[in-house]
Design goal:
109 residues, six-stranded antiparallel β-sheet, 6 strands, SH3 type barrels
């Protein structure tokens, strides 16, 4: 079962529903059979809601990466394919602290 702070490869369906793409995501919280995730990209931060991962290799990523808190998805847990690792910031402080440090207003338990 996925836990907040873990980075997973998810099968993200396109809006059209005709196809999907495997993408890295950061688990923010779980709710029964669903999981709320934020997109992870190799692009540099470009807005106040982007958070650069300080220890991206510990999170199982191959390159420096950014979490886009403006790109949230609610997915069925069955769409999570493979756990890559854990973002160390979640081990050292709460998700709420990570988000608030970037000016966000999302509260995560």
């Amino acid at each position: 079962m996925p836990q907040p702070g873990e980075v997973w490869i998810a099968d993200i369906p396109f809006t059209s529903g005709t196809a999907s793409k495997l993408r890295p995501v950061l688990v923010l919280w779980t709710d029964a059979a669903d999981v709320v995730v934020a997109a992870v990209t190799s692009a540099a931060p470009r807005s106040a809601t982007d958070v650069a991962l300080q220890d991206w290799s510990a999170a199982g990523l191959r390159v420096a990466s950014t979490v886009r808190l403006s790109r949230l998805d609610c997915l069925e847990q069955k769409l999570l394919r493979r756990r890559l690792g854990i973002e160390p910031a979640y081990s050292n402080r709460s998700a709420r602290t990570v988000i608030n440090s970037r000016g966000g207003t999302i509260w995560i338990p």
